[in-house]
Automatic annotation (TrEMBL):
The keyword Hydrolase applies. It is found in: Cytoplasm. The gene is hutI. Residues 65-404 form the Amidohydrolase-related domain. Fe(3+) binds at residues 73, 75, 243, 318. It catalyses: 4-imidazolone-5-propanoate + H2O = N-formimidoyl-L-glutamate. 4-imidazolone-5-propanoate binds at residues 82, 145, 178, 246, 323. Its EC number is 3.5.2.7. This is Imidazolonepropionase. The lineage of its organism: Bacteria, Pseudomonadati, Pseudomonadota, Gammaproteobacteria, Cellvibrionales.
Length: 409
């Protein structure tokens, strides 16, 4: 470290989440963190801090510092809402029935196509701000409610524009293969051709997506159709992610692992072979307890097996109008413990280190370590176990976004 840094935070405990440090949180008690520009330049026990001058010194008052939280799977740019569908599901209709009857995703497609970019921006902003208020500094946002070239581009541009006006990194994912649009009814292969030959190349040309996602499920696209989307994404040099095995076992996870996908998401119905394939390919699991809860599912993802195989387990909101209209990553941490059996430390890893893996950004984010981006949150708590346990009152005391002190929300 040079003799001068921009920001020095002292008198904090750091839950670094660095797996090379001992303990589930990679904790450094009584730590100091030095930042220059938007990077951490030094982190360690305060007594080992080299002599340094700083433009700004923050006294952490014995609070805990964590990496900025990462919500690695959202659909937060969309038109309208589906409160009516919520009521129908409470009355006994299933998500699949509503989807087959032209509701579900397609109802949001209608409202998203009808909305202007300004409307979409205005309705997405409070969702994004709710996440930011909780200490989220990176959000992935998917398209997938357009299902035509113009609306997919519109959604992705809005997602990029949200990042320009808020203290948050946004990564974008093209999910054009989310559902079959009504104008392609009975012609799923033709729609997949549109996705592969027109939508993805146009999205790539405008550099609007960092990854490509697809919904591989009996009510959406088959493994063969998704394989065509994967091949098209790879031709454009884009990594893939897959909504896989949420409602049934389909073989989607093995297909994703063969393609070295960044992540497979949902995965309630994966098998032992799927877990082995993920461990082999380094594909992360993204667990979405909010969708599980909203749909009142009963089958949980095989967390013990994923843990034993060393598969990184990320946790995300899946924030969307159908299966998780809940803009709270902290609640998802709590649900991942109560519903899926993660430990509080795994829950925090799930929204930091593992979430960075699921987005392919672990070289720059997800842990507190010299050289990585200084996205950090200071929490008024005595133990990092409180983050998954205590909701509502426990809010960030301070957020540092690329080393800049920002007001959360
Ligand atoms: O991740 N599974 C597909 N997509 C979303 C649901 C989208 C919707 O119902 O609008 C999900 O759960
Ligand atoms: Fe999703």
């Amino acid at each position: 470290m040079t003799e001068r840094c921009d920001l020095l935070i002292t008198n904090v405990h750091a839950a670094t989440m660095d797996p090379s440090l001992p303990g589930a949180y990679g904790a450094i008690e009584d730590a100091a963190v030095a930042v220059t520009g938007n990077r951490i330049v030094w982190i360690g026990p305060r007594r080992e801090l080299p002599e340094t001058a700083a433009d700004q010194i923050v006294d952490g008052e014995g609070q805990w510092l964590t990496p900025g939280l990462i919500d690695c799977h959202t659909h937060l740019v969309y038109g309208g809402h589906r409160a009516g569908e919520f009521a129908r599901r409470l009355g006994g209709e299933s998500y699949e029935d509503l989807a087959r009857a032209g509701g579900g995703i397609l109802s949001t497609v209608r409202s998203t196509r009808a909305a202007s970019a300004a409307d979409l921006y205005r309705s997405a902003e409070p969702r994004l701000k709710a996440l930011i208020r909780e200490g989220v500094t990176t959000v992935e946002i998917k398209s997938g409610y357009g299902l035509d070239l113009d609306t997919e581009l519109k959604q992705l541009r809005v997602a990029r524009r949200l990042a320009q006006h808020h203290p948050v990194n946004v990564t974008t994912t093209c999910l054009a293969a989310h559902a079959l649009p009504p104008e392609y009814d009975g012609r799923a292969d033709d729609y997949i051709a549109l996705v592969c030959d027109e939508i993805l190349p146009a999205v790539a040309k405008e550099q609007l997506a960092d990854a490509v996602d697809m919904f591989c499920e009996n009510i959406a696209f088959s493994v063969e159709q998704c394989q065509r989307v994967i091949d098209a994404a790879h031709r454009l040099d884009l990594p893939v992610k897959v909504h896989a095995e949420q409602l049934a076992s389909t073989g989607a996870t093995r297909m994703a692992a063969r393609a070295s996908a960044l992540s497979v998401d949902h995965i309630e119905y994966i098998t032992d072979e799927d877990v082995a394939a993920m461990a082999e390919s380094g594909t992360a699991a993204v667990l979405l307890p909010g969708a599980f809860y909203t749909l009142k599912e009963t089958r949980v993802p095989p967390v013990d097996k994923l843990r034993a195989a060393g598969v990184p387990m990320a946790i995300s909101t899946d924030l969307n109008p159908g299966t998780c209209p809940i803009a709270s990553l902290r609640l998802m941490m709590n649900m991942s413990c109560n519903l899926f059996g993660l430990t509080p430390a795994e829950a925090l890893a799930g929204v930091t280190r593992a979430a960075a893996r699921a987005l392919g950004i672990c070289c720059s984010r997800g842990v507190l370590r010299a050289g990585l981006r200084a996205d950090m949150v200071l929490w008024p708590m005595e133990s990092p176990d409180q983050l998954a346990y205590e909701l509502g009152a426990l809010q960030p005391a301070d957020v540092f976004f690329g080393g800049r002190h920002v007001t959360a929300g």
